[in-house]
User: What shape does this take?
Amino acid sequence: MVFEYILKMNGIDPTTDLTIIQNIDFGVTAEAFVGGTGDYTVEFEPHATGIEKDGSGYVIASLGVDSGYVPYTCFSALGSYMKEHPEIIQSFTRGIQKGLDYVNSHSSEEIAKVIQPQFEETDDDTLKTIVERYHSQDTWKTDTIFTEEAFELLQNILEEAGVLEQRVDYDALVTTQFSK
Assistant: This one.
């Protein structure tokens, strides 16, 4: 949806100006591309860097950069749970903030070393390259606040994709009290 939204923002109609192959399992799109299917592919890491490292292709753009701050990851809780357990929500939010503080104040090499155990299948050099790319693209926010601007962008993307029937008021779904 984000890819199609970016195409449309740039005057490209994804239904008439190109063919998007969507019947390949997401886990094997990199292999399909390397095997000759398609002229371009949209990949998450570590597949994008893997394609570059083996000489099969190049990363030419970042959907995250071109789309703006799309909230790819957000956390949800029932209002009743937040009301009954504010200390848990606050502690969780502080933990996420500590992670953001870390990635925004340490080198790519330091970050790669710390997260390596979570990515055993990815070699150190590839992991460092990925983290460096994220740093250079300003991927990580500095705080946990889900802004109204990001919320509206997400709704624009969902609406443009035809999966959002009715827009929702920011204040009805989002609280920033724990982040603040």
